[in-house]
Design a protein that fits this description.
Layout (H helix, E strand, L loop, with lengths): L1 E7 L3 H17 L6 E4 L2 E4 L4 H10 L4 E7 L8
Antiparallel strand pairs: 1-3, 1-4, 2-3
Amino acid sequence: MLVYIYDIKTALKNYNRVKRVFYYNLNKQGLSKYYWKTKSVLVAPNNMELAVDRFFKEYSKFCVVYKIRCKQIDEVE
């Protein structure tokens, strides 16, 4: 299981445009069907690693992205 933590970083005047295009393309490529734990965390299965990496590389100018590999995620109650 892969956990991607991302943050959109751009000038304030471009932020809304970049954010809108980012989420539009995320939905268009079908990556939004994977779990969104919060608005800046995406959880994807291991077999989607290349597709998700390729997506985030397109936005490398506008995003800071961290990838975590894990076996299990538990919710703290």
